Amino acid sequence: MGKIFRELTPVGEARKLFLENISPIRESEEVPLEACAVRVLSESVFAGRNVPHYRRSAMDGYAVRASDTLGASPSNPVLLQLSDKVEESTCTWVHTGAAVPDEADAVLMVEDTVDVGDMVEVRAQVYPNRNIGVVGEDIKKGDLIFEKGHLLRPCDAAVLASLGFSSVRVSRKPIVAIIPTGDELVSREKAGDVPPPGVVLETNGLMAALYVEKWGGIPRCTEIVPDNPEKISEAVKASLDADMILLCGGTSVGKRDHSPQVVESLGKLLVHGVGSVPGKPTALGVIGEVPVVCLPGYPVAGLVALYFFARVGLRKRGAIPEIPGTVLKMRLAAKLSSRIGYVNFVRVVFEGDQVRPLMGAGAGVLSSVAKADGYVLVPENVEGYEAGEEVSVFLIE
Fold it and tell me: Domain 56-133 is of which CATH architecture?
């Protein structure tokens, strides 16, 4: 595509093209229930037993024969003999969750009784199966519990545990290779107290790795690679055993920007340049079956590319269901300006029940994200919003 942005691809079109070139990984693994949260089932799960598997009491109280309580009321109580078994005119104490004796067909709440020595004064009538959880009331043997592709939650783990599962089969997490590039970069370990002028701490790789982990992948970071196409190519080739590659930096059209051309030389460059502010220099490609996102070096532009492309690509690669983010409808405390023809990622802060756009929030000002509470996406065909207008605010993860 050369060293100029001949054409910018709209964000939606770029995302669609990228996803069309991504295939979900097929491998699965067995994990213990203690580690199954936010994992994706690789097979449907069916119940191998009833829950409960016995008749259990739903209340603290007395197991009784319902017929022995007929007509009981506070003004007309019935006396039953307290016993260790249930027979005619007798009752026995049961705790919540305890097995109900076979001879009993109801449980009388303790609140509806009064102890009178070794007798129980019954002050309410109950009917058969009252306050009893019958066998299979919660789950019946053979029931479909979760379908393949279900994203497991902690409450789901509890259901599986109640069915006797100790582990479950889930899709393998996608491994994402993160390759930071740039002659100006230095690792935090080697930087010392303050790096000299012209030298920048490498932080985009850290940010990308933490988001990859948050979104369900396994990050694998490489050493910093210099702005050399041969070196970048070597690093990419060495990372093709990963399920996705994120190249950080070197995506624009300057003399030291080589990432898109390296992707094109090794595979297929789908997009270079998207209609997004920030994030315009983003490039997308695929090498064999490995999707590649070239993230701009400016931190906020890199974050936007992570949100717009790496996140959805990672989820499709790992067959991870998309979870809608929190979106708030709020009014603007001040005018929000945007650039027509681009999707604008505008950071905002809460101000009472309104939001205010952050000033001085350029693509290189990463602190603007840390200061922001959320962001507003302004469509390509909209030239900003006036103060007082209602907008959709996405919370920053």
Answer: Beta Complex (2.170)
